[in-house]
Amino acid sequence: MLSAYEEIQEEFNGARSDDIRVSLADLIVLGGYAAVEQAARNAGYNVESSFEPGRTDATQAQTDVESFEALKPAADGFRNYLGPDTTLSTEELLVDKADLLDLTPAEMTVLLGGMRTLGATYQDSDLGVFTDEPGTLTNDFFETVLSMDYEWEPISDSEDIFELHDCETGELAWEASRVDLIFGSNSRLRAIAEVYGATDGEEQFVRDFVDAWSKVMTLDRFELK
């Protein structure tokens, strides 16, 4: 994936006769916006993102590799990732991550639900991807997590991973994490999820997801605030 961005950058910058150049950082963010817009179109919605260019790249010589090791996340609920040796519950770590990103409860909810339907999980895991159409920005995640058609059963001693079984047939339908479960079990988050999981809630979900995505993508752009 990174090599594809590098090819685009080289082609664009090589074709310019002026001083305008595109950074790899901007291309990566722009690629994310393009993917989100395409996923919305796949679901039947036309949305436009507000991409803000201006990021610059740091060279390897300007990067202190050892210092970046300390920045590796212990967990990332938005991608259903839980690292080793964590002492807090995954849902607590999700809320902590959302607070660091300056997200409201509604923004945290819609961003996570959208990431699941995009299939943007750690190591491309199917954990929490409650859809047969990953890459299409539907509200399938919320429909599933709120459904009374499934029974959640823990399959690990720590109760971090669950299986969703069809209540009528007993067949395994999906696998999920504690992070996924809280959007059905926590009363405040369930109330938000019900808005997006409603029959007429999908368009609101798509538009709110695009707004939350744009907010996170500009958190590093302090000059825009």
Features:
47% helix; 9 helices; 225 residues; mainly alpha; 5 strands; three-stranded antiparallel beta sheet; two-stranded antiparallel ribbon
Question: Largest beta sheet, briefly?
Answer: 3 strands, antiparallel
Q: What is the oligomeric state here?
A: single chain
**SSE class:** mainly alpha
**Topology, number of strands:** 5
Taken from the alpha-carbon principal axes, the silhouette is globular
Helix content: 40-55%
- Average pLDDT works out at 93
H-E order: HHHEEHHHEEEHHH
Describe the structure.
The protein is mainly alpha-helical. It contains nine helices and five strands; from the N terminus they run αααββαααβββααα. The strands form two sheets. Strands 3-4-5 form a three-stranded antiparallel β-sheet. Strands 1-2 form a two-stranded antiparallel ribbon.
Ordered list of secondary-structure elements with their pairings:
Blueprint: H1 2-15, H2 24-42, H3 65-69, E1 75-76, E2 81-82, H4 90-100, H5 105-118, H6 140-146, E3 150-154, E4 161-166, E5 172-177, H7 178-185, H8 187-197, H9 202-217
Antiparallel strand pairs: 1-2, 3-4, 4-5
Helix pairs in contact: 2-9, 5-8, 5-9, 6-8, 7-8
Provide a brief overview of the structure.
This protein has helices at 2-15, 24-42, 65-69, 90-100, 105-118, 140-146, 178-185, 187-197, 202-217; strands at 75-76, 81-82, 150-154, 161-166, 172-177. It has 225 residues and is mainly alpha-helical.
